[in-house]
Amino acid sequence: MSTNPMKVRRAAAHPDRPGEACKAEPGAYRPEVDPRRCEGKGDCIEVCPYAVFELGRLPDETFDAMPLLARMKSWAHGRKTVFTPKADACRACGLCVVACPERALRLVRAEVG
């Protein structure tokens, strides 16, 4: 999936966009995905300028630990979710957070030390 310019513009103009507008040092923040909410639609992938995200299947141990309603929702969406294999590349632009239709993402300041 490549970056979608229309979705990027819409996310960039969102008044609730968190983060530091892509000006943070790489790794100062990391995106966190809530697997109970994520339906794997990939909007975060389409707006992320740093290729932080990838689409995959929810692991069995995560799926099994979820509440029943969350498991049913995940199952209905093919157990798709997004992962952050390149979280250390995040520059805290916040585009992913406001682009996510399920509100399954948030930016978290990385712990120093």
Summarize the structure in words:
- This protein is an alpha+beta fold and 113 residues long.
- It has a single domain (5-109), classed as Alpha-Beta Plaits.
- Helix content is 29%, strand content 16%.
- The protein contains five helices and four strands; from the N terminus they run αβαβααβαβ.
- The strands form two sheets. It has a two-stranded antiparallel ribbon with strand order 1-4.
- The longest helix is centred in the middle third of the chain and has 9 residues, at 68-76.
- The mean pLDDT is 93.
Give the terminus-to-terminus CA distance: 34 Å
% residues in beta strands: 15-25%
Helix coverage percent of residues? Answer: 25-40%
Q: What is the average per-residue confidence, as pLDDT, rounded to a whole number?
A: 93
Computed structural class: alpha+beta
Describe the structure concisely for a colleague.
The chain has 113 residues and is α+β, with helices and mostly antiparallel strands.
